Amino acid sequence: MHKMIFVNLPIADVQRSRDFFTAVGYTINEQFSDENAIAVELGENIAAMLLTTDFFGTFHEATTAAPGVKETLIALSAESREEVDEIVNRAVAAGGKEGRSEDHGFMYGRSFDDPDGHCWEIMWMDPAAAAGGPEGAQG
To answer: Which of 9, 44, 62, 136 is disulfide-compatible with 129, CB 3.0–4.6 A?
Structure first.
């Protein structure tokens, strides 16, 4: 199956996105970044390619969604409930907009919108619940 994932998203301002995601704690892969794009390393073999809207448009035939239109929710796992809070708190402190939060005991998540309105959910799931599937989540 797949070995890597690159989530491509349109952005308005490369420097603003660079500053935001660096403040949240992510690393920028300069090898794949320039005046039109930044590659944000989200984890091993996971990257967000943040492309200026015009550059993003060169990769497809459709109309690019307008800012504020939600067409995806990017969910990223965390090692603990505390890490969920740390990441989202840094995002909000860097200018992100805090979104929904959910606490189901075995699963905990919080979300934020980046400066371009893309929704990021950081979530943690109890390892026993994750291993047990839906039945494991019932406790």
So the answer is: 136
DSSP label of 48: E
* Amino acid in position 37: A
Q: How far is CA 6 from the centre of its chain?
A: 11
Superfamily of domain 70-138: 2,3-Dihydroxybiphenyl 1,2-Dioxygenase, domain 1 (3.10.180.10)
Q: What architecture is domain 1-56?
A: Roll (3.10)
Backbone φ and ψ for 73, nearest 5 degrees, come out as -125, 120
User: Can you tell me the distance from the alpha carbon of 38 to that of 47, in angstroms, rounded to the nearest whole number?
Assistant: 10
Residues of the chain with confidence (pLDDT) below 70: 133-139
Measured CA to CA in angstroms, residue 70 lies from 82, 118, 139 at distances of 27, 7, 33
